[in-house]
Specification:
Elements: H1 7-21, H2 36-44
Length: 64
């Protein structure tokens, strides 16, 4: 119901302002590469693609 009303942008901007005031030099986000809408949101907020690669290792859950 709240999509496209600017709520997410306001929350991210508030977080970024807080990080800047705390002297945090870099804020990093992880976005699925197929989520173009979220990529656009963060690009519009001034984020740029970095050269950091993310590697995951997922363990299959085992029922005990």
């Amino acid at each position: 119901d709240y999509q496209r009303q600017g709520v997410g942008s306001k929350l991210v901007r508030a977080l970024l302002n807080h990080c800047e005031m705390e002297g945090i030099p870099t804020v990093r986000i992880l976005i699925p590469k197929d989520n173009k809408e979220l990529q656009t949101l963060f690009k519009n907020l001034g984020f740029k693609r970095s050269h950091v690669l993310n590697f995951d290792k997922t363990f299959e859950s085992q029922v005990l």
